[in-house]
Design goal:
The chain is α/β, with parallel strands linked by helices. The chain has 2 domains: 156 residues, Rossmann fold, CATH 3.40.50.10940; 310 residues, L-fucose Isomerase, Chain A, domain 3, CATH 3.20.14. It has 16 helices and 19 strands. Strand 7, helix 7 and strand 8 form a beta-alpha-beta unit. It is globular. The N terminus is likely disordered.
């Protein structure tokens, strides 16, 4: 990662430049049991690769030519081939019953995420010598994976035709990309959490369990680094890029020079401190001392970096920036982090939502943050001052936030968190941002999630989640849920439909 990659001048839609996430190259290895015809597994592997190439990007995958026939030595050959071809994810494909020992050793010794899927029988006309019994072999594979304590991704229904298995692989790739990203990620945090923000408490033990590294720095270190960037020759170029993004390329206010200096401070810190890690996210203490010392707010810079795949969360929310990074890897698009902030006023619901959208009043709420959301996700994005901080600070010390209503469309609201009891928990809920004017300030939107009221009480409150929720733009619930399971999260909440009670929900309500 170099500064040339971190700062991408505004040419077209630079927000799609996601250099801070992995590129997956998945190897497909077919396995065969020695009492079944090896060519059955080989031919089915070829059919799978052909089906994937027709429907998706053939460059995503590598067809390993070694067909394992209950042989540990062939397992080693397959591993060498995968390494030679720089595969960082693996699909073990049961073309027939499969060798339970060799196939699970393959998964155990492969350095990366592994999925298993199995071939369905093709035709009733060929159930004598052409029957593979992979339906049965999948059971033995899962049992042996458990015996060896190997964590493998197994699709919801892991047996299918070549086309169906191609779809399973395609669904696994975002999960694999995120898994690889987390195992090569460093979270860099600046400063302790603001006073009265114990809700963002972050026990770091679970970060290490996930394979994530963390570097905790002082906000004084950040301020020192910022001061050392005074007069940096690159400031003018970054400020001009900001002005172009904001729609006034011929006018560069002095504020943009300050923000450009701060952006360069962060990007240089990333380059100098990423160490042996490939990917980085950031989180900063953005108030109240920030305004006193820097004389601006960092929100707009946070939004720009998040738009390029480097999430920067507010208020030293370590699991917030981790959650944002997960959404970035899954969606390959900018995400945001918002307060689950305020209820929708009754008159707004009556005027703008009731009868127009199929949501109860309690299904709706407003998601808000001061101004950290990428401009590509906002209607009429514009630079402003942070209204909340201006209540206790001079207004001109609070410039630097980006405001606008969040664009309408599908969303996934989610979070991964080590809660107060140091247990890893998560939630996922699909919904949408409604095309309703918020009539408020900040980066803000009117959100609707089916059965949000019950979800709010029986998951968010019941499970002690903090007020920050990550937002991915699109419906990624299935992939997100699969990922959390793959990461070993045992407690995954979701917005249960009406009639499906939460464990502690009062049935008489």
């Amino acid at each position: 990662m170099t500064l040339e990659n971190i700062f991408v001048p505004f040419v077209g839609d630079w927000r799609k430049v996601m250099f801070n996430i992995p590129v997956v190259k998945l190897g497909i290895v077919a396995v065969s049991r020695d009492c079944f015809p090896a060519d059955l597994a080989t031919n089915r592997r070829k059919a799978l690769v052909e089906a994937y190439g027709k429907k998706y990007a053939a460059s995503d995958i590598h067809e390993c030519p070694v067909c394992i026939v209950e042989s540990e030595t062939q397992m080693v050959e397959a591993l060498e081939d995968l390494k030679k071809n720089e595969c960082n994810a693996l699909c073990v494909y049961l073309g027939n019953f499969g060798p339970e020992i060799s196939e699970t050793l393959l998964a155990k010794h492969f350095d990366g995420p592994v999925m298993f899927c199995a071939a369905a029988e093709e035709s009733q006309k060929d159930l004598m010598d052409g029957r593979g019994d992979a339906y049965c072999g999948m059971l033995n594979a899962s049992y042996n994976l458990a015996l060896r304590n190997v964590n493998a991704y197994i699709p919801s229904y892991p047996v299918g035709t070549a086309e169906e298995c191609a779809d399973m692989i395609h669904e696994f790739i975002p999960v694999a990309r995120t898994y690889i990203g987390l195992h090569n990620l460093k979270v860099i945090s600046f400063g302790p959490r603001p006073q009265n923000f114990l809700a963002c408490n972050a026990p770091i033990k679970q970060l290490y369990n996930l394979g994530v590294e963390i570097e905790e720095e002082s906000e004084l270190d950040l301020f020192e680094a910022y001061k050392k960037h005074e007069g940096d020759k690159r400031i003018a170029e970054v400020a001009a890029d900001m002005a172009k993004e904001l729609g006034h390329p011929d006018k560069i206010p002095e504020m943009l020079n300050k923000l450009a200096q701060y952006e360069l401070t962060l990007t240089d810190w990333v380059e100098e401190h990423k160490g042996y890690r490939k990917y980085v996210t950031l989180t900063t203490k953005c108030w109240p001392a920030f305004q006193d010392m820097f004389n601006f707010v960092p929100c707009y810079v946070n939004s720009r970096l998040t738009g390029r795949g480097i999430p920067v969360s507010c208020e030293v929310d370590i699991y917030g920036t981790l959650s944002e990074y997960i959404g970035t890897c899954l969606s390959e698009n900018p995400v945001t982090l918002l307060d689950i902030n305020n209820s929708v006023p009754a008159d707004m619901y009556e005027e703008s939502i009731k009868g127009k959208f199929d949501y109860k009043h309690t299904d709706t709420f407003m998601g808000f943050h001061c101004g950290n959301t990428c401009s590509s996700l906002l209607n009429d994005p514009h630079l402003s001052y942070q209204r909340i901080m201006a209540r206790t600070h001079p207004q001109d010390w609070c410039d630097g936030t980006i405001e606008g209503d969040i664009k309408a469309g599908d969303i996934t609201f989610y979070r991964l968190q080590s809660t107060a009891d140091n247990k890893l928990r998560a939630y996922v809920a699909e919904g949408e941002v409604l095309p309703v004017a918020t009539k408020s300030f900040g980066s803000i939107g009117v959100f609707a999630i089916p059965e949000m009221g019950r979800f709010y009480r029986n998951v968010l409150i019941e499970k002690n989640f903090p007020h920050h929720g990550a937002v991915a733009f699109g419906h990624y619930g299935k992939k997100m849920y699969d990922l959390f399971k793959f990461l070993g999260v045992e407690d995954i909440g979701f917005n249960q439909p009406a009639g499906m009670l939460y464990p502690s929900e009062n049935p008489f309500c």
